[in-house]
Amino acid sequence: MPKVVVALDVNERERLNSILKEIEGEDVWVKIGLEAVCSFGLDIIKELKEKGFKVFADMKLHDIPNTVESAARVIVRNGADMLNVHCTGGKTMCEFAVRGVKEEAEKLGIKKPIILGVTALTSMGPEDFGAIGMRGTAREIVIRLATLGKESGLDGIISSANEIRVVREYFGKDFVILTPGIRPQNGSIDDQKRVSTPTEAVKAGADYLVIGRPITASENPKESLRKILKEIEEACNS
Ligand code: C5P
After folding, report:
1. Cβ < 6 Å from ligand 1: which residues?
2. Residues that are catalytic
3. Closest Cα to atom 10, ligand 1: which residue?
4. 192 pLDDT above the threshold of 90
5. The domain 3-237: what is its CATH number?
6. Could you state, in order of their start, the residue ranges of all structural domains in the chain?
7. Strands (E), the chain
8. What is the pLDDT of residues 69-115, one digit of tens each?
């Protein structure tokens, strides 16, 4: 069954603790991104793991290959189960990141964390792609960048639910697909543009569903999470 990854996009300790209290004991991963890491440091990974969560360090690395490789090694040393780079950083950058992750995991004698490539942010639509010089439709962009990611040795990619089917067709069932931009039916889309419901993402074949505000900004996070988990289970069984 696809896993829910709860996005902990917070910068205050109290807020973080209250969300963790709501989701502790549930069968979910958690994700820390720029906001959480800038606030709490990478040490937070250890703390989250002690609470029993698998942790996705969503740092979206994008820099020269050497810098990205070094940062990837640091993230592995801090215990992340999953990390990511921007495929737009290019093939060499992705290859260096993959090498850093593999070597560091071997050195530590741990299972290699999953390393994914960001293709096209779910907050971007057609007009945004054109404005930064990305040619083609979202689907074409995702396939182009997923191909680069696959050739670089990445384990999978991050894309909106709209592109999952075509990515599966091209790269098969073992290629990991993580999908953000998940919104329950009639939920507020916030700053996201290419959104889908949990059911749509599951039916399309996502392995991981990243969900932030529909859970963390809800009046009752535990209930919202449970509703989503139930919807996912039903979608898997139907
Ligand atoms: O609150 P919401 O569900 O929109 O949060 C989505 C999370 O997924 C955010 O933390 C965002 O950084 C992340 N993300 C995304 N689009 C991507 C990759 C990651 O929205 N392509």
Report:
1. 7, 9, 33, 58, 118, 121-123, 158, 180-181, 190, 192, 210-213
2. 60
3. 7
4. no
5. 3.20.20.70
6. 3-237
7. 3-7, 29-32, 55-61, 82-86, 114-118, 156-158, 176-179, 208-211
8. 999 999 999 999 999 999 999 999 999 999 999 999 999 999 999 99
